[in-house]
Amino acid sequence: MTKILIVEDEKVIRSALRRLLTRNEYDVEEAASLTEAKEFDLTQFDMVISDLRLPGGNGTELIDLASPIPVLIMTSFA
To answer: Which of 27, 40, 49, 77 is deepest in the core (most CB within 10 A)?
Structure first.
C-alpha cells in the first residue's frame, strides 16, 4: 500500500485530503506543522504532500529531508 504524509496546518484541508486518499486505498499520516512533519522518518513514505506556508517554516524544507521521496507543495493565493 502506498504511504503518504500530508503536512497541512488547515484541519479542513488536511481532513479532506485524508478522506480522498484513504478512500482510494492509500495509507495516510498527517502533520499540522513543519515541526510535526520533521518527527517522521520522511524516507519511509512514498510521497509527501505539503502546504507551502506552515507553522515553523516553509514546506519546501521537506524536499531535502525527504529526498529521494517526491514532495508535492501546495499553495493558494487569496
So the answer is: 49
